[in-house]
Give the backbone structure.
Amino acid sequence: MVFHYLNKKNILITGVTSGIGKILTECLSSYGANIIMLSKNEAVLDAMYDEMIKKDKTDPLILKCDLEKLNEENASKMSKIVKENYANLDAVIFNAAILGKMSDIESYDQTTWEKILKVNLTSTFLMAKNLLPLLKESTNPRIIFTSSGVAKKAKAFWGAYSVSKAGLNALSEIISDEVESVSNIKVFNFNPKATRTDMRASIFPAENPNQLIEVKELMPYYIWML
């Protein structure tokens, strides 16, 4: 099935070099979308870029970025780079996240805590803030946040990851309430649930991966939201 409405759409995806982000990038590019790829892994970004140019004949863009170091100035520059390359921005998929470590709060160190919140939550706020004007220029813009089961029901040992995802839920609801009634932007908060990824394997090493959802099985959900 070919999804013609994705052809020539400009979609920014964070965390594109592995897991859900990588499969999502390859899938949407195959339908003709121009993927703005954000990651800090330059070597993988370059390889993916070359493959999309050759295979899909799309117009991708690389944004090399370490989300832990993202600040207001860099987020503003990122928005300007996107604007210089495309007329507008049709969608943003906030996929990038790191787990940090599984630990009780008493043993949780401040350095790890702050890193998780910067990568998973603060960077998303900064990007959303600076990309909203570009999204408003699109006729059918979408923002997709990536949630988690521990966002609504916190559990022992999930620490900063759970807190960051709970904060992301709140951020998505705030943005939805602010923009959906006054613009064409539609906001989604999507929980992939138990999916066969490297992050999942690191948390539950004894789990049978064959009983989990494959990443490619999530693609119809993203395509529906877009």
Observations:
- The mean pLDDT is 91.
- The beta strands are 10-14, 34-39, 61-64, 91-94, 142-146, 186-190.
- Residues 110-135 form the longest helix (26 residues).
